[in-house]
Amino acid sequence: MALIAIILIDTSFVKIYEIIDKDFAPNQIKILLLSGEALICLFLQGLLLKQVWNSFKTNQLHSRLQVRISLISLSMLGALIAAMIFQLYYYNQYSSFLTIAIIILSYGTAAGFIIWLSSMFMSWYKSTHKFIIFLYLMSMSLIAFNLIMTAAIASVKVADRPDRIGVFVGGGGDISGYRYVLLDLIYRISSFTSFVGIWLTTAILMTSYREKMLKAITYWIIMLIPLVYFIITYFYQPILGGTLGPFLESDPVTFSIILVAFLSLSKPIGGLIFGVAFWNTARTVSYEKKIKTCMLISGWGIFFIFAANQGTIQQTTPFPPFGIPTLTIY
User: To 5 degrees, how large is the angle CA 330–CA 105–CA 38?
Assistant: First the structure.
C-alpha cells in the first residue's frame, strides 16, 4: 500500500509537469522530496524481496538465482539513483544518460523475468494443453514485448534531450517529431494488445468463479469497466475531442490537470482488476498455503506491472526527475 501511495505521488508530479508553474516549490524542496521517495521506494522493495523469499524458503537453484538477480538489479538501480541525486544536489542538474540507464535496467530486468515466466507457461502448456495456460503464455509474451518497446521508445526520446538536464532545460513534451513513427506505432500496438490480452485471459479465468462471487451481469460489468476505460483513454481524441473542446477553452489549466489524472488511471485500474483474479483464486485455494501465497504475490505483481509502467513520461525530462522512483518498482 505504501508503494501504491508512492506511485500516485511520484507520477502525479511528472504527469502535470508541463501544465503547472515550475516554481511551485523551491528546487531544494523538490529534490528533497524526490530523494525521500526514492529512498522509501527502494527500502520497501528490499523488504518485499525478503518477504517473498521467506514465503517460500526453497533451495531450488532457479529460485535463488531469481532473488539474486532481483537484488543485484535493485542495488544497481539504487546506485544510479544515488548518482542522480548527487548531481542534483551539487550541480543542480542531472545526466540524461542516468535516466536511460535506469529505464533500460528496470525494464530489462522485468522483461527478462516475464520471458522466463512465459517459458514456464510454455512448458506447462505442452504437458496439459489447457487453453487458459495458452492464453497466459500469449499474455505474458505480449507484456514482455511491450516492456521492451517501452524501454526502447523512452530511451531514444530521452536521448534526444540535452546531455545535462537543468531547471530551465527540462520539459517541452515530445520533441522527436516524426523520426520514430514506426517505433512509436509498434509501441502503441504492443500497449494495446498486451492490455487486451491480459484482460481477455483474466475474464476467462474468472468466468469459472463468477457464480461464486456475483451474478453474471454484474461480473461482466466489472470486467468491462477497465477495458472500456482503457479504450477511451487510448483513443480519447477522436472519441471525446469535440466534447472536451469547450471545457479546455474555458479553463485550460484546471481541465488539463483533470484530463491528465483521468488518462493516467487506466492502467492502474486495469492492473487492479487483473490482480483481483489472482486474489480470488487465492481465496478459493486457501487450504493450499503455498499456492495461496503464490496467487497473492502474483496478484500484486500483475498490478505493479501495469501501475509502474510509466517509462514514456520521462521523455519530458522533468526537473527533478520525478517518475524515476516508480520505474524501479519493476
Answer: 60
**Domain span at residue 75?**
2-19+26-56+63-327
Cβ neighbour number for residue 148 with a 10 Å cutoff = 19
- Cα-only R_g, the chain: 21
Distance CA 5, CA 59 (A): 34
Task: Number of helices (H) and strands (E) in the chain: give both, helices first.
Answer: 13, 2
Q: What is the pLDDT of residues 209-254, one digit of tens each?
A: 555 555 566 666 666 766 776 676 666 555 555 555 565 556 555 5
Q: How far apart are CA 246 and CA 243, in angstroms?
A: 7
Beta-strand runs (E) in 53-131 = 93-95
Most confident of 139-143, 170-174, 227-231, 304-308: 139-143
CB 154 within 8 A of CB 323: no
Instruction: Classify the phi-psi angles of 129: left when phi > 0, otherwise alpha if psi is within -120 to 50, otherwise beta.
Output: left
Give the number of other Cβ atoms within 10 Å of residue 43's Cβ.
12
At residue 94, what are phi and psi to the nearest 5 degrees? -140, 160
CA angle 238, 239, 242 (to 5 degrees): 75
CB within 8 Å of 86: residues ≥ 6 apart: none
Q: How many domains does the chain have?
A: 1
CA distance 72 to 99: 18
CA angle 180, 183, 189 (to 5 degrees): 135
Alpha-carbon distance of 97 to 271, in angstroms, equals 30
Rounded to two decimals, what is the model's pTM? 0.81
Tell me the pLDDT tens digit for each residue of 183-197. 888 988 888 888 888
Q: Give the span between the Cα atoms of 223 and 209, in whole angstroms.
A: 13
Residues 100 and 321: beta-carbon distance below 8 Å? no
pLDDT tens string 128-147? 888 888 888 898 899 899 99
Cis amide prior to 320 (ω within 30 degrees): yes
Quote the cell numbers at residue 184. 512509436
